[in-house]
Design a protein that fits this description.
By secondary structure, the protein is of the alpha+beta class. 41% of the residues lie in helices and 15% in strands. It contains 15 helices and 12 strands. The protein has helices at residues 4-15, 24-27, 32-43, 67-85, 108-119, 173-190, 194-210, 215-228, 236-246, 266-280, 335-342, 350-357, 359-362, 382-393, 396-399; strands spanning 46-49, 52-55, 93-97, 100-104, 135-138, 141-146, 149-154, 257-262, 286-291, 313-318, 326-331, 371-376. Strands 5-6-7 form a 3-stranded antiparallel β-sheet. The protein has a 3-stranded antiparallel β-sheet with strand order 11-10-12. The chain has a two-stranded antiparallel ribbon with strand order 1-2. The chain is extended. The protein starts with a helix and ends in a 16-residue tail after the last helix.
Length: 415
Amino acid sequence: MVPLDEVVNDIQRVIYSPSAPSSFFTNNGIAPRVFKNMLKLCSESIFLYNDNVYKQHDGVAMGSPLAPLLAEWFVAMVEEQVVQQSTSCKPIFYKRYVDDIFAIFHSITDRDNFFTILNNAHQNLTFTMDVNKSKLPFLDVSVYIKNGKYNTQVYRKPTNTGVLMNFNCEAPIKWKQSLIRCLLMRAYRNSSSFYLFQMEVKNIKSILLKNAYPDQFIEGNISKFTSDLKIDENQFKQNKCTNTKENQLVVTEFDDVYLNIPYIGKPSEKLHRKIYHRMRKYYLCVKAAYNTVKVGSYFSLKSKCSNLFGSNVVYKFTCSRDENISYLGETQRHLFKRISEHSDRKSDSPVFDHLFNCKDCQNNSNISARFSILRHSNKYNVRSLESLLIAKLSPTLNIQLGKYKGAGAKLVLYG
């Protein structure tokens, strides 16, 4: 578990250190205390479970955008302490990815001493050690020694199910082609010899066949991949070095326009082709960014968020005694905040006036239940939507508010 306070304090120390280079925060005059509070606010987790709201006191939430960065910072922070303490047993080779470490030592004694220092560095970190003289896995690479030389190949965990995107699923054909290319590229990069690459290609083919990929489709994509990268047995290592350098990701400004299109099969592809050809006349290259929906998204196991936490909504208040007495309004904030304002004696609200004069509403212990959400919208359209619904429903409490009936936007209908 990442100790949030400790990590936030260390980030603040590094950024605001006198020897640190200038940053966005220091250039814009953001005080250390303000930066610290901002970072903690973005990192703390508040979640809903069984209709109760909880706040996580320590650690970071899974899925939080800052979680990977904070976890990496924490391990790097501990790693720096370990390096300073292990001068007598430093590894001769050391690589780390988050909390997975691959290291080579001069002796077993150095290895055990380093492991002890690593585990004693922080109470929130506990490492295990996998020792094997013949073969060791590191991430998706299996490393072993043969004839005095290091060899590498693709590693899969024993729990790997081999389940991939099924060929018959509703997804663009380019996604399926890219899946095969991705698996082949991993095999190419992780295999230290042409023989090991061929063995991995056979494994990939076997897995794809189990996921309903046609044999001809698989063979065609394999042939294209080996042809594009000029992979052959005689110059495997030489071509591999060249291709690895050429295929490095280069980030440039996007010249293309991407259009989000829900993917429902051929109609989505037909729509993209029409837009693409029409936009070419105006020298625009429109590419499709297809969106698909997983079946699992229809069966969420998460607790449903209460309507009281809804924002950018048009809501309706209904009297406990007479349902014909109602009020309609909008809020861009959480609904429960607007309800508390309506219930406040100091507010100039027709809802409060009604609550003050209606005994049935006064006897209602849960007045929030009399508020319901009519429509969800966004901050740009919520007021217009409110005006339209007021015009349509004519709520009685709104009529008392004058010409525009309390609407946030003036409604004008043109004939």
